[in-house]
Design a protein that fits this description.
Layout lengths: L5 H13 L12 H25 L8 H17 L3 E6 L7 E7 L6 E8 L14 E4 L2 E3 L3 H20 L6 E8 L9 H4 L1 H6 L5 E4 L16 E10 L17 H16 L6 E10 L1 E5 L4 E5 L8 E10 L2 H15 L7 E10 L6 H5 L4 H6 L22 H8 L5
Parallel strand pairs: 3-6, 3-7
Antiparallel strand pairs: 1-2, 2-6, 4-5, 8-12, 8-13, 9-12, 10-11
Helix pairs in contact: 1-2, 1-4, 2-4, 7-8
The protein binds zinc ion.
């Protein structure tokens, strides 16, 4: 969700990536760092203008033309920096597509993969459409934090490195997906290009906002699965509910399941599960792809069908499978006269906290650059480490030894 203060945060983040950044340290900047700082400062107004321009183009995931247009705008900026940008059409996975841009340095020592996305959760019919300045350091708009601001930060950072003559030290691949908020299907096709780029990279950085604090890096991510519960009951007059041959109905069966998983799984660290949609009654129309449906039922008829759509997030594969097993066990204790089926669809895999990733964090510039990977509860986030003190090229070299 976008919230006020977002573009100020975005710019602060770019400073942290490129610079020692804190004013108190400004005196210790070397000539290159001062040049980078100056380029960033000069670039802020243009970056804000680009942010405003792209935020005002609706790019809700299912607005394919809007997502492509934002890709075209960001692609043009990357081409201006010497990247070869190309558009991957998303017809194969039912989405708009992805922007991929590559730039090879001269005598490059480090392969860098920079990741972002073009789409937002605000579709074309959302009332939230426009970039609005709130005061001189705050703006609101759809997708500023998540994550057009992050892409603008990425571009400003690359621009500053280019102007300082440091971009040629890197081979950079930028992947901006068009389906982060609602991933395309099949997932394998939707993520093929990103997965192909990953093994080539010494260092991968996602620019989506983490916890809103640019001093922290996020180095783990919970995996996400979807689940669908379909409960069935026997339709009959409500006056006969609970009769042995009629049972409790589909709505009570779904409620039993939800209540039981709530009571047995709630509170496990890092595990969350959320029923986000429920429909129940005599006849249902439900579209999982659209996240909507219709229900017909009467108060004097025992419900015949209930569908519940939810998600499940876990920090490790083991935790995910344990939670699934618990849900299967609970499922089997049906109310009389009812049945229920449960289906899981695994989406993103868990990325557990790893020592190798964390070891990059004390190196200050890398820490700042990697802060934005994912959203997690504060309890799993690493502490930010010491203040920044190195210029980017030194950091890149050191980080290239980390097998994250
Ligand atoms: Zn996002």
């Amino acid at each position: 969700m976008t919230r006020p203060g977002s573009f100020a945060l975005a710019i602060a983040a770019s400073l942290l990536w490129i610079l020692p950044a804190l004013p108190a340290q400004a005196a210790s900047l070397n000539a290159t760092e001062k040049k980078i700082a100056a380029v960033v400062d000069r670039g802020v107004p243009a970056s804000l203008a680009l942010l405003e321009r792209t935020v005002n183009v609706n790019s809700g995931t299912m607005n394919f033309a809007g997502v492509a247009e934002v890709g075209r705008l960001f692609g043009a900026e990357l081409e201006r920096l010497g990247f070869e940008a190309h558009w991957i059409d998303g017809v194969e996975f039912g989405r708009s597509g992805h922007l991929i841009a590559e730039r090879r340095g001269r005598g490059a020592r480090l392969q860098v993969l920079l990741i972002g996305h073009l789409d937002t959760v605000f579709e074309a019919d959302s009332p939230f459409q426009r970039f609005t300045r709130i005061d001189d350091s705050t703006a609101a708009g759809p997708g500023i934090i998540d994550m057009k601001g992050g892409v603008v930060v990425l571009l400003l950072a690359l621009s500053a490195l280019a102007d300082a003559g440091r971009l040629d030290r890197l081979d950079v691949t930028v992947v901006l997906t068009g389906d982060e908020e609602s991933v395309g299907y099949p997932l394998e096709a939707a993520r093929r290009h990103l997965k192909a780029a990953a093994p080539l990279a010494d260092l991968a950085i996602g620019f989506e906002d983490g916890d809103g604090d640019p001093k922290t890096a996020v180095i783990a991510r919970r995996g996400s699965s979807n689940w669908t519960l379909r409960a069935a009951g026997r339709a009959a007059h409500s006056s006969q509910i609970f009769r042995p041959d009629l049972g409790s109905g589909a709505v009570f069966e779904a409620a039993r399941f939800l209540s039981a998983i709530h009571d047995s799984l709630r509170g496990e660290p890092y595990l969350t599960f959320n029923p986000g949609l429920i429909l129940g009654g005599t006849t249902l129309g439900y579209s999982a792809a659209e996240g909507r449906g219709t229900a017909f039922g009467k108060s004097n008829v025992i419900a015949e069908s209930t569908v519940v759509a939810g998600d499940l997030r876990a920090l490790t594969f083991e935790q995910r499978e344990r939670a699934k097993a618990a849900m299967w066990r609970i499922l089997e204790r049906h109310h009389p006269g009812t049945d229920a089926r449960l289906e899981f669809e695994d989406r993103y895999p868990p990325w557990r906290p790893a020592r190798a990733t964390g070891s990059c964090l004390p190196n200050s510039t890398a820490r700042a650059a990697t802060w934005a990977l994912v959203r997690l509860p504060p309890s799993i986030r690493r502490s930010p480490g010491p203040p920044m003190s190195r210029s980017p090229p030194e950091c890149w070299t050191e980080c290239s030894t980390v097998s994250a």
